[in-house]
Amino acid sequence: MGETIIFAPGANGRELLRSLARFGEKCFNIRACGSAELAELVLMRAGIVLDKNRIDYSGELALMAEAVKKGDKDKYFKYLSYSDLSEITKSMDQMRMMAEGENESELLSQGLKKGIFTEKNNTLIKIYQEYMKLLNKSGVDLVELVRQAAQVDAATVQNAFKDTRFIKLGEYPLMPLEEKLLSLISGGKYELLQLKDLFSVERADAAATKNTYYSCYGAANEVEQALEEIYRNHNLEDCTIAVTDPGQMSQLIYDYVQLYDIPCTFDTGVPISNSNPARLLKLYQTWMTSGYYGVDALNSLIFSDYFDRQKFIGEILKGVKTEKLKGTRLLTSKEKLNLAVLTEMAGQLRLSSDSTVNKELIKNFKSHVAVEKKYGEAKDSKNYKDWLTVQQALPLLKNAASELSLPLAEFITKYSRIRYVGDSNGEKFNTLLDQTALKAICRQLESRTAVGLDENLGECINGILSSRAGRSDSQPGKLHVTTMEGALCTIRPHLYILGLSATKYPGAARENYLLLDDDLDNLANGNNQGEWQKSQGKVQLKLDRLLGLVDTMHKLKGNVVISYSAYNVAELKKENPSSIVYKIHEKEQGGAHEIPFEEIAYFKPAISINRGIGAAYVGDKEITRESNEWSQGHSEPVSYTLQGEYSPSNLEKFFKCPKKYLFEKLMGLEAGEDTDAFEILSNKDKGNLAHKLMEILGAYRMEHQNQLMDNGDFMEHCGEIFDSFIKSHTALVPTQVSKVRADFMAMMADAYFGEKAGTDSSINMMEKKLQGETPEGIKLGGYPDRVECQDGDYKIVDFKTGKADNYKDNNVAKCLQVMIYAYILEQTISNAKISGGEYRFLAKKNKIISCGYNEDAKSTLLEALSKFKEHMEQGNFPCEPLLEGLKEDCEYCGYADICGKDNGGCAEDE
User: Is 170 within 8 Å of 551 (Cβ atoms)?
Assistant: First the structure.
């Protein structure tokens, strides 16, 4: 029995043979070939071994990029993008496939020189000439492979295929060079058939059915209607869905596949953005662009569900002894790496994807570590743990910098979290999607890198994220989704064609801007072999293919369902059915008749768990709701027992806004506050630096009998510590650092002279922990900035770098922190005389707010603390200050969207 070769370039040969077998055709010794497969078969049977390597499409792109650089001297393609390069490569292949004669170069030059746009065509000729020079040195591409096969000895190859039946399908027209190859090996004896002619046996077990037409309200309704009808009436493996818009329709179908666990294969693929590798790639893009390599963007990347954190932690800890991290914030209570602390440091340093930049940043951080070590911290100080963290973080940051600067393809491959195969159909498909997406991303990244264009990485990633992945052939027991062209090869008893609106299919005629219709005529040299490649010819080919597909379905007595979106819901405009729908109906009826569209109203199919598609899985079970009315009751409030000790700063937060205290301190919710990426020195950081310097100034006084440090020495310390901070908090705009530095130095100069004016008092303690307890058992503890003493009279000093506008002298509410410290100090030092304290505002030329401490103030304070205990135990957290004179700025609160104040939902009993 001789073999049969179906020559159909662009067809899915595997699917075509499956379709033939499905309808009873004997497929033994039948081969469905594309151009490359047939050319390789010809060369093999002719005993010819190529002495050059076969170049794939990525290799063609790389050669074409080099050819454009050398051949386009006049910079016609001045701003060449990757998509432009792809179009040039495809057009060049198309040109070469049209030159069936032996002298390819001459035929192409003559044809292009006749064109209207001489500048464009002359550039294409030069690029072609450079490409061929590079190709001759590098290997053999697809066109050259077909050309060499078409030039073998006719007698030899025809003898090798003497018992072969050759079939050419009308739905897959050939290029001139492909036509030459087929004529050579067949001796001109091949059959021209239509798709329906391949099926010799008609189905006898089904009655002929008429086409069904649906007019749907939106694309989502189209998908719902098709899926529900399939589940009501057919087996999944008997159905194919063909779509005109693979991007939109595949996404909609994918959503239902996940929602209802539908067994489904996608020849179209689905948008790659549904995969974990693509989601990670998107976060990576945000990190390096609008995230400015900052803390928030890095955390979004590292702590996403798409990132393999355990693998990342393993790489970071390489060569690092965990024992050295003890006592730092880099370890959790379970002595595991506290990745959040490290990413905050890495984000402040702005470690990037560039290894050269990262080396410089690590060098800066090393310098910062040295400065921190020089000034040191006492083990009993509140900053000691932070200081020790900085001292031990360097090797971890080095490893993190190395991993973050990996080539992007390697980074995505290494850290993408692939969803593993589960029991459900949706989980199994997601595993395939992640795996194919990862390969596609790496392939495109490598291809784009190989071509050497000036395209930036952000544009490259955008191109990748617009692609699709998860493509697979049809499988038994599963619904198959394919393109209109793919449906030609996947013939099943029931065909659903979705999206046949006028704007989508077959679409308007559009010329190739590189090879105009006029150029194609010239390259065809008078024959009509270029007609189907021209703008109108492409539209006609789509029409012929669809009509041929419907004819095939009719021959096999298959069921054809056609639908279109009568309304484009996204753009809120009415759509018309494609003209092809009318041609199909006319052919079916043997003349012009009105199409019997069934109107599918807005969400008429109403796919849900208790209808249609859901019923296939849940049987008779239904989910019901007892009442359509939402409960109006309130849950019982949660009470909090007093545990641990409370610092004055946290208590002040409570009295300003108990609801915010609940969210932040008790529930641990992160505030949705936006950070300014361009900010050089935040108010918090400015306060920390200023406090550190005032501690240095105070320590000198304590060590030198209350003598003040030299002004020049102090300002030198200020500059050194500020510069060190900047090295660990990389500024996005370095030119702005000098102004911020000058402002900071001016503030500290004022602070120095304020200190000089207050040397009448001696410093008793600084940043030392004080602990106390109220009569009601509320434990208090904290680190006052300073305790000063003059003539046996103690006072608390608290330094502020913010505004003094809302502070008032001797007001317990405004002086709350100082009052609490005074109360604790009273318990710490027996029989001590404590006059109170003061707030010293460094940024306001040392403006001082006095806070007198006496029995009345103490009584008021204890009443307030009693109120704190009462609210905690009752679970009462209103969103308003609890002490007169305090004010919480709701406008900039990170919890404003959830506290309920604007909606009247912040009641005391809530």
Answer: no
Task: Quote the pTM value.
Answer: 0.88
Helix (H, G, I), strand (E, B) or coil at 567: strand
Q: Which of 101-110, 427-436, 670-679, 757-766 reaches the highest mean pLDDT?
A: 427-436
Q: What are the C-alpha distances in Å from 12 to residues 187, 241, 262, 309? A: 26, 16, 24, 40
Across residues 749-767, what is the average pLDDT? 88
Strands 4-7 and 30-33: parallel
Q: d(Cα 696, Cα 715) in Å, to the nearest integer?
A: 11
Helix/strand/coil for 857: helix
Range with lowest mean pLDDT among 73-82, 96-105, 459-468, 666-675: 666-675
Residue located via tokens 């401490």: 853
Determine which of 140-144, 276-280, 299-303, 892-896 has the lowest per-residue pLDDT on average: 892-896
Give strand pairing partners of 645. 779
Residue from 285, 386, 407 nearest 344 by CA? 386
> By CB neighbour count within 10 A (0-12 exposed, 13-18 middle, 19+ buried), where does 841 fall?
buried
How many CB atoms are located within 10 Å of the residue 132 CB?
18
Listed in sequence order, the residues at least 6 apart from 321 whose beta carbon sits closer than 8 Å to its beta carbon are none
Residue 208's pLDDT band, with cuts at 50, 70 and 90, is low
Distance CA 485, CA 169 (A): 13
Alpha carbons 541 and 369: distance in angstroms, whole number? 70
What residues contact 827, with CB distance under 8 A and at least 6 apart?
772, 773
Dist. CA 211–CA 559, nearest whole Å: 7
User: How many whole angstroms separate alpha carbon 223 and alpha carbon 592?
Assistant: 28
**Spatial separation of the C-alpha atoms in residues 402 and 577, rounded to whole Å:** 56
pLDDT at 673: 62
Alpha carbons 315 and 346: distance in angstroms, whole number? 15
Q: Is 79 left (phi over 0), alpha (psi -120 to 50) or beta?
A: beta
Give the pLDDT score at 559: 93
Residues sharing a CB contact under 8 Å with residue 229, sequence separation 6 or more, in sequence order = 496, 561
Burial class (CB in 10 A: 0-12, 13-18, 19+), 242: buried
Residue 633: how many other CB atoms lie within 10 Å: 6
Question: Residue 552: which residues within 8 A CB-CB, separation 6 or more?
Answer: 194, 195, 196, 199, 491, 558
**Which parts of 637-770 fold into alpha helices (H)?**
648-656, 658-661, 683-703, 711-728, 737-757
Integer CA distances (angstroms), 700 to 113, 250, 251, 717, 838, in order: 87, 72, 68, 12, 21
List b or e across 487-511, with b for residues whose CB sees 16 or more CB atoms inside 10 angstroms: bbbbbbbbbbbbbbbbbbbbeeeee
